[in-house]
């Protein structure tokens, strides 16, 4: 392949390559702050190397002075300088081995960060999972924070309660706006039909009717019916008379039909009036007995319960009833949206009052605080224990996606300056240790 083709292929590959992910930016791009840190690392490297050269020069001069007969002090200085060189070189090797192969030699267990990056990511993920995402740590931390009392103190402030109320109203309006009426209507209709179809209504109606009759709650309805019936009879006397006369045989004289009609009308009006005015009227007692027997039949009679179930199915199957069920959601949604938008609506006022009351309880009642803290601890522990693997894998996979070279440069720029102090300290401590060892050796030898 010639150079032109290779260049073309490389250009095409670069054009088709995916752009760097934002999540990798922090480890692949050097910022101005990173460049400044790297310059600080270089300065510290020069300082540490300068100290190594300094003790090397001191060692050479001390050895020369010792051979020249300068005295015993030259041997002490030479021993200290020699140990200082050893310490400086050993620490230089250790620090360098973290980031690269010393002198470019592939010595085992060197260039630890670039070669062990993925393994370090796995170890870091396991460390975080075991020491930060454990149930005991999460519970202790949340218990120390005291979220229940803090939340109560925050909610007890009126402006905070207003803010939460407004946010809840906005979220409610948004949710109701997103939902499609047809979908909700279908769900509501299906739920009502399924619930009504699965549950027998006759026993419940019978028990309800039995209670109403026992408490006399039906008597007002009977009073209303009797009053309306009397009023209707008075207003429609002629029509009733005509109906009675029209039902008489054709061979009877008309005046006889008229007298019979008047008699029937008067008796009917008297009956309704007496029933209206007399709570102890026999017809009322008969009605009470009928309703009581009907209530018992609804609860225990198989035929009556079956008829009610058939009637229920026929009613639910009517299109008017289904339309009513479907339109109920539209009315409810409009009512809720209007209440959520109105700052003075009963809904928002009640929510605000509830939040203030909750804040006061959480502030003053330790039992309420403990309940909230326990609930939050349980929720946090559930999340941590359930998704611990995903959380730690995020660390592992993120580190695995970093470029080894840039990761090494980034880490060295951030901690390399402190690591150079190890070299400096190694030089100083090595010199002092060498001086001490030489002094003890001479003392024992003497």
From TrEMBL:
Residues 1-24 are annotated as: Disordered. InterPro entries: DUF445. Residues 1-10 have a biased composition (Low complexity). PANTHER family: INNER MEMBRANE PROTEIN (PTHR38442:SF1), INNER MEMBRANE PROTEIN-RELATED (PTHR38442). One of its GO terms (cellular component) is plasma membrane. It comes from the Bacteria. This is Membrane protein. The lineage of its organism: Bacteria, Bacillati, Actinomycetota, Actinomycetes, Kitasatosporales. The keyword Repeat does not apply. The chain crosses the membrane at residues 46-65. Keywords: Membrane, Transmembrane, Transmembrane helix.
